[in-house]
Design goal:
The protein is of the alpha/beta class. It has two domains: 182 residues, no CATH class; 205 residues, Rossmann fold (3-Layer(aba) Sandwich). Helix content is 45%, strand content 14%. It has 18 helices and twelve strands. Strands 8-4-3-9-10-12-11 form a seven-stranded mixed β-sheet. The chain has a three-stranded antiparallel β-sheet with strand order 5-7-6. Strands 1-2 form a two-stranded antiparallel sheet. The protein is elongated and about 85 Å long.
């Protein structure tokens, strides 16, 4: 169980991204509310403009060029805002120091373009920028008001002075440690608030009278054990004919090409062979690989075939989730009921709604990390079916052609390549013959 995943452990909540990602600006520019106000507004403007520009250019430039372009645009905008503030209010500009220029390299702006797994959007940028602006101003108001006794929110409000606080003036709030204390307090309060909203309070039970010691029951396992096999194995492992049509099997995972994938798997499994090898490229968090393994395992009732499924993805975090094999039940909500009963173990915790892949399926699947852009791939040399799942978007035509040639080399003669990725059809090798909407076979 991944204790850091809120789906698997509701007691684990990440710190707010707009607090941790911009902690440098929080510490350096939160001694004056007016400076924090201008700095938060500047970061919001830069974030929205950078996201709007790069979102409009997405698909027209290579993915590898997005981060340098985001850095260049944010630097240009930060410089322009610096000049404008120097002309309007030189005193406030001097109090900001280097921190206005540092907004150009803020993780809040650049991280979405440096992390391929994220999908930047204008709405997300606007919400994150507003959150950071509000938090920065609140932190600066507390530090300036309690630390110096006066407050200025230029250009929105005149200066306010509180005589009582001006004589008190705790120096720690104006020091860097004061920002640390207030930031930590904000994170703790945010987690407590999230936990109060997400984890329902359990009703208290009345204390039992201590007449005699109460025996301690044996601990209950988190997941229900797999049912004991009964007389006929077919009732435990569903036959391939018992599986409903593809539109009923996890459309969230297989999408519109599920019917082609099912027919290819049926053909590969039902043909007489001593072994079959399946390769899933771009498996994400593993749901597709487990679907293929469940489908292949259920088909062994008709044809005893030694099969293996290898799944690859460029991101180690996704592979960690895939190897763990613990998911929220909605991720398999549309899976065929016979497969659910045979291969998914349900959590006994009332509020967790978790399922775990059974050991019967785990023995047939292995996960490896593969980086498509550098060519570091782990392939079978005799793959019968290769599923390419959203792995080539943003790569150049030459790079797509090179990767597809490597994939075809790993296919057995008449092996099937199932595509679910945006690419130029001219990148496909000539040795591939199209047999369906998303299915290609090697001649």
């Amino acid at each position: 169980m991944n204790e850091h995943d809120p789906f698997q452990n509701p007691k684990s909540f990440p710190a707010p991204r707009f607090l941790v990602g911009g902690v440098t600006l929080l510490l350096g520019a939160s001694t004056q509310a007016a400076a924090a106000n201008i700095l938060g507004l500047s970061l919001l403007v830069i974030m929205v403009l950078v996201t709007a520009l790069l979102t409009a250019l997405r698909g027209k430039i290579a993915r590898s060029a997005e981060f340098p372009l985001a850095l260049a645009v944010s630097t240009l905008l930060a410089t322009v805002l610096d000049f404008i503030l120097s002309m309007v209010n030189p005193t406030l500009r001097a109090s900001l120091g280097i921190y206005l220029s540092l907004t150009a390299v803020s993780p809040l702006i650049l991280e979405p373009w440096a992390t391929p797994s994220e999908t930047p959007s204008l709405t997300k940028a606007l919400v994150t920028g507003l959150q950071f602006w509000v938090v920065l101003v609140i932190l600066a108001v507390i530090r300036e008001l309690l630390g110096s006794g006066h407050l200025s929110l230029w250009p929105f409000a005149p200066e306010i002075t509180l005589a009582g606080f001006s004589t008190y003036a705790p120096a720690v709030l104006m020091a860097a440690s004061g920002a640390f204390f207030l930031t930590a307090a904000g994170i703790v309060l945010g987690r407590l608030w999230q936990r109060q909203r997400t984890v329902p309070a359990r009703p208290r039970q009345a204390p039992r009278p201590m007449i005699k010691p109460v025996p301690v029951p044996e601990p209950t396992p988190i997941f229900e054990p797999k049912p004991e096999p009964i007389s006929e194995p077919s009732s435990q492992v569903p036959e391939i004919e018992d599986i409903p049509p593809t539109e009923e099997i996890s459309p969230s995972t297989l999408d519109t090409w599920g019917e082609n994938l099912e027919s290819v798997l049926r053909e590969a499994i039902m043909e007489p062979a001593e072994k079959r090898r399946f390769l899933v490229l771009g498996c994400g968090t593993g749901e597709l690989a487990w679907h293929v393994a469940m489908f292949a395992l259920s088909a062994q009732q008709k044809q005893k075939t030694d099969f293996r499924v290898r799944a690859t993805d460029p991101f180690a975090v996704r592979l960690e989730t895939a190897r763990e094999g613990v998911y929220h039940e909605h991720q398999f909500s549309d899976l065929a009921e016979p497969l659910k009963q045979a291969y998914l173990l349900r959590s006994r915790e009332e509020n967790h709604h978790l399922v775990r892949i059974s050991e019967a399926v785990r023995n047939y699947v292995e996960f490896d990390q593969a980086d498509f852009e550098t060519g570091r791939l782990f392939f079978y040399k005799t793959a019968d079916v290769i599923i390419l799942n959203q792995s080539l978007e943003g790569l150049s035509l030459d790079r797509q052609r090179q990767i597809l040639e490597n994939i075809v080399d790993d296919l057995v003669p008449k092996g099937a390549l199932v595509l679910r990725t945006e690419l130029d059809r001219s990148a496909l090798p000539e040795t591939l013959r199209r047999t369906g909407d998303h299915v290609f076979r090697r001649d």
